[in-house]
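About this split. The held-out portion is used to measure sequence recovery: a designer receives only the structure tokens and must propose an amino acid at every position. Recovery is the fraction of positions where the proposal matches the reference. Here is one held-out target exactly as it appears in the evaluation file.
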């Protein structure tokens, strides 16, 4: 069955409760079971009220938005996960955006009451974001949350939020706002299921950071009856209703046993017959490094978290300190630093970039250096200085490399500063198809499967209706991975995957079978992937890879590999 379809006694067509088995995209590996409880809907907007004092309504609307911005900023400061903090901080900037506030003032001056002034301003701003398209359109979901919070503030209503039934439960929602996801109590919320969202949505990113089983883009999920017992498989994307309390308890018991066993296991990644596979971490700063997680290094150090939502670029000394802290955490270990991946969904105010008709196809990643080379040069200088001070030998790679000429230029800049291990992110199909020529200039390649999917299938990463095209099991995507791995074998150079495909315990062995030499992922995914590799020989991985490549669609690829079993 294709992702995004429901099976069993689905009564979606009649609008009644959905039963049976639903399928979405698994974005947070693991299994869980419990009763379903849904997020409350947005606050109802009362009938417009005319004749009120425009000045008072203006002040009340602006006060509400200021309160929302302040709350989001406080949540960002309190968040323990850097990814969550960055997302919440960006959302607070939207709530305080001068353009949004100006629109609110205009609406109040035109006679709207405060609640409708906020609602109309957010609706107009939302349409503008959607019109930009690409990853920028994802901010529309953030704006919906800001609107709901501000309207509730104006009306004196409770802010829609996570339910509290008094016992552990499976949280189901149309979608989740960053402020809701970042503050989830993982002792109470067993799993997440949303109707919207994709593999790189905020819900997916934060669910993986929290280690929660999660399924997104799951049609019919919000029509599962409140209190219904369900099982959630965040690896396969399956949500099954109709289970009983005893079966749910058994699923939870097994999941707990699996977590304990994985916590006790460790060591380097390898297949059942001893073939080594580096298991690495994706991080945004040293705060992401967890001492209890046994990883062999860092496969993706996202340096853009140091730059996000700043009016001025971080200075040389600030960058040196941030990089050195990570290098010292892995003395003698592998740390792959990705240079600034700005643009598209990560606009940086200090760059002064103009509005682009399609940011995902515009000036992002390495392309920023075309107009602002000093930004890249300063960053490379800081990485080299941090390496000198820590005694580390970092690996450095550029995002969005598309041509041999770009690889040449980046390699020359990096090596001029004494950085000897230089590579590129493969996110553009043209680069994947020229992997052999790139490896004549570079020392390694790392595949960002999220963006590679987006560009290979011409499907926006945040477009929920296109989530099936972004499924990392797409045979076309796996073919591109295979081409890069083939080039790596011929050149005797390493090929890694640092997209979320690496975090899927069923897909990770397939990637190894294709010839990938390292897998980089969020910390909670390391142990499940290590276990999956340990159960399979290299030959079984290669057989599974051939099976997946020969499939006609991602659902059949996943099902065929799962049917083979681990050994």
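Reference sequence for scoring:
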């Amino acid at each position: 069955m294709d992702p995004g379809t429901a099976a069993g006694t689905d009564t979606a067509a009649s609008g009644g409760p959905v039963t049976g088995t639903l399928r979405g995209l698994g974005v947070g590996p693991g299994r869980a079971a419990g009763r379903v409880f849904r997020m409350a809907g947005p606050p109802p907007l009362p009938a417009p009220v005319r004749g009120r004092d425009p000045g008072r309504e203006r002040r009340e609307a602006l006060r509400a938005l200021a309160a929302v911005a302040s709350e989001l900023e406080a949540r960002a400061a309190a968040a323990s996960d850097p990814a969550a903090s960055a997302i919440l901080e960006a959302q607070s900037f939207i709530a305080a955006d001068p353009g949004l506030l100006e629109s609110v003032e205009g609406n109040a001056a035109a006679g709207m009451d405060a609640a409708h002034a906020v609602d109309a301003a957010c609706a107009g701003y939302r349409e503008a974001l959607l019109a930009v398209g690409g990853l920028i359109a994802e901010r529309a979901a953030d704006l919906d949350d800001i609107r709901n919070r501000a309207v509730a503030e104006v009306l004196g209503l409770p802010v829609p939020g996570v339910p509290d039934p008094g016992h552990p439960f499976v949280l189901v929602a149309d979608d989740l706002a960053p402020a809701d996801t970042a503050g989830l109590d993982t002792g109470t919320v067993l799993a997440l299921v949303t109707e919207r969202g994709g593999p790189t949505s905020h819900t997916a990113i934060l669910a993986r950071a929290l280690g929660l089983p999660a399924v997104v883009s799951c049609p019919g999920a919000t029509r599962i009856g409140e209190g219904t017992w369900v099982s959630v498989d965040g690896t396969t994307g399956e949500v099954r209703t109709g289970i009983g309390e005893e079966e749910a308890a058994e699923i939870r018991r097994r999941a707990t046993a699996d977590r304990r066993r994985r916590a006790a296991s460790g060591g380097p990644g390898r297949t059942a017959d001893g073939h080594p596979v580096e298991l690495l971490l994706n991080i945004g700063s040293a705060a992401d490094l967890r001492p209890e997680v046994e990883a062999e290094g860092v496969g993706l150090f996202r340096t853009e978290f140091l730059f996000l939502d700043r009016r001025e670029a971080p200075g040389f000394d600030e960058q040196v300190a941030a990089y050195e802290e990570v290098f010292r955490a892995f003395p003698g270990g592998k740390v792959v630093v990705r240079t600034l991946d700005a643009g598209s969904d990560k606009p940086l105010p200090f760059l002064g970039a103009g509005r682009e008709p399609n940011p995902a196809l515009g000036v992002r990643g390495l392309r920023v250096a075309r107009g602002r080379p000093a930004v890249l040069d300063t960053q490379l200088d800081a990485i080299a200085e941090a390496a000198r001070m820590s005694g580390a030998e970092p690996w450095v790679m550029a995002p969005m490399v598309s041509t041999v000429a770009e690889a040449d230029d980046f390699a020359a800049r990096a090596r001029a500063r004494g950085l000897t291990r230089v590579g590129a992110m493969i996110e553009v199909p043209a680069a994947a198809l020229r992997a052999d020529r790139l490896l004549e200039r570079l020392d390694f390649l790392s595949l960002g499967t999220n963006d590679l999917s987006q560009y290979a299938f011409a499907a926006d990463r945040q477009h929920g209706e296109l989530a099936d095209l972004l499924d990392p099991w797409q045979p076309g995507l796996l073919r591109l991975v295979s081409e890069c791995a083939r080039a790596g074998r011929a050149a005797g150079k390493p090929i890694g995957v640092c997209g979320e495909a690496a975090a899927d315990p069923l897909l990770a062995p397939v990637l190894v079978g294709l010839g990938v030499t390292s897998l980089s992922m969020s910390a909670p995914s390391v142990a499940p992937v290590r276990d999956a590799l340990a159960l399979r020989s290299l030959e079984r991985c290669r057989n599974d890879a051939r099976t997946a490549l020969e499939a006609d669609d991602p659902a059949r690829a996943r099902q065929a590999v799962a049917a083979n079993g681990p050994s």
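Annotator remark: The CA atoms of residues 311 and 352 lie 9 Å apart.
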